[in-house]
Amino acid sequence: MTAEAFKQTASSLHLSLTHKSPPASVPETNGGEGSAVANNNTSTDSEPIASLSAPPTVFSTGSYGWKGQQRVNIELHNPETGEKETVNVTININATVLGSKPSAKDKDKANKKAEKEVVKNDESEDVEEEDEDE
Known about the structure:
Elements: H1 3-9, E1 13-17, E2 50-54, E3 56-58, E4 64-77, E5 84-96, H2 104-133
Antiparallel strand pairs: 1-2, 3-4, 4-5
């Protein structure tokens, strides 16, 4: 899939962050590279801390995926003072489609195609100028 096709067809990702771990039934992905997280959190705090949207994007490297950022205040218990503290956090997500970075060969093809378009446009402008001169 080309980066242009990806941007036209992909939907934004929407994430909701909580203090509670996902259920242990979350499946592993990528042949075991990902991992299911056991729900050892005894907190019942499943209210979202923050929500984040990550729209489809093309990164400067030419690869594509989703990118999002959100600033959030998170309340923590300080064990030294026994009081609650609020910390300001920046949450970033870059979810890159594996294998989406164009190869050098693909880049050369795209450059040649762009050069042909420039030449074609220049030639059509020359013809228009000749028509105007007559």
